[in-house]
Amino acid sequence: MLQAESAARALMPRYGVGEIRVPALERIQLYQRSTGETSDVVEKQMYTFSDRDEAETVVALRPEGTPGVVRAYIEAGLDRSDPEQRFFYSGPMFRRERPQKGRYRQFYQFGVEVFGRADAACDAELLIMINDYCKALRLSARMEINSIGDATCRPAFREALVKWGREHWDELCEDCHNRIDRNPLRLLDCKIDAKLAASAPNSLDYLCDDCRAHFDTVRGTLDAAGVEYQVNPRLVRGLDYYTRTAFEIMAEGLGAQSTIIAGGRYDGLVEAMGGAAVPGIGFAIGLERVALALEAAELIDGTSIDAVIIALGDAAVRQAAKLAHDLRDAGLAVEMASALRKLRASLSRANKIGARYAIIIGEDEMARGVVQLRDLAQSTQRQVAVGELSDAIVGAGRN
Ligand code: HAM
Asked: Closest residue (by CA) to atom 13 of ligand 1?
């Protein structure tokens, strides 16, 4: 998780994105009005409860980060005073889903939201950022993009989907029967078999001229930047606020929960939540899923502990604490072994955590101002003066 998050944080200054921290607890209406009443997240997955205030306000643990960021942006008046903004956030989200590998009830997202940019170059820039992120982690991932249209062209697409759904009523699942009028785009998300989905209307066939030009520019910019992607005209998102560009990034080795990053444009959301008509776009990284993908591809960084200090006897323990401090000051990563373990057990743990050296100090070594420096990979040991220890470790080359 640390690797997944720090790689994302490291990218933010390069794209001029600043951090925002928003509450984990918000009024339920925030999500009803943004994530959407017909989304699974709001319909079935939110953890909600009544506050003990007079109004018995119903609050929810945040199921996603976007609505809270939009609320904070409007409340600070930025939509009117200084609309072009870029934020990132990182923290826990909560959804009452059936837990399985890669799907948890409390999970961590790292998200990015950009406001005030309606141009397609911004969509491409975020996708390039995601590409940089996967490259930094050496993660091979598949990027799928689509355009789901806007208020001008979406109604015709919706209508076509409803018509198609009625024609295939018997082949659709019960969830789809419920969705057909409320949220027909989600018919494409159903567990219906691929052959049936292939006969469904395709959002790209319904795009108006503006949406088509926007999508063409996104694609052209990605092509020019050398970013690989696939157009998936059946990609729709589970949250209600999306317009135009929608995307998902999938990694291998994760089984059913393979989407590690997802997002899209939400041009009407700020206005729908009471702000000015400011466009928005963003995405969120599922940090556990990235960590699982790194593990599956054996890309997890090993521990970078240089040395474990093993002190034998009370007096040596006191000396060891000072030695550990001096070595850390010299830039080395050092761990002190538990004083309750025997030498053999401490050596085997040092090996297990991948430390390069063990530094062994006993009463005798202490009296002579030396330690035993054991190279754990080579199983060789030599005596080194305390004053020369950091040079001996650094000189031998660090991990
Ligand atoms: P989302 O697709 O609901 O989008 O979630 C984004 C990512 O969070 C998913 O692709 C997945 O990696 C991870 N995720 C979601 N649910 C779980 C779970 N139960 N357990 C583990 N990981 C999970 C959003 O949340 C939008 N707010 C993204 C966005 C930002 N769109 C625009 N701006």
From this structure: 286
Distance CA 245, CA 229 (A): 13
Asked if 339 and 311 count as a contact pair (C-beta separation under 8 A), the reply is yes
3-state secondary structure 307-346: EEEEECCHHHHHHHHHHHHHHHHCCCCEEECCCCCCHHHH
Residues lining ligand 1, Cβ inside 6 A:
64-66, 95, 97, 102-104, 107, 109, 111, 113, 238-239, 259-264, 282-284, 286, 288-289
245-300 confidence digits (pLDDT tens): 999 999 988 888 899 999 999 999 999 999 999 999 999 999 999 999 999 888 77
Portion of the chain with pLDDT greater than 70, in percent: 97
SS3 264: strand
Which pTM does this prediction carry?
0.87
CA 52 to chain centroid: 34
Question: Ligand 1 mean position to 262 CA, how many Å?
Answer: 6
For the CA of 109, the nearest atom of ligand 1: 8
**Residue 192 pLDDT class (50, 70, 90 cuts):** low
Amino acid at 212: R
- Scored b (16 or more CB within 10 A) or e, 321-336 reads eebbeebeeeebebbb
Query: Following CA atoms 299, 249, 269, 234 in sequence, which dihedral angle do they give, to the nearest 10 degrees?
Result: -160
Q: Which atom of ligand 1 is nearest to the CA of 259?
A: 10
> Whole-angstrom Cα distance, residue 23 to residue 93?
11
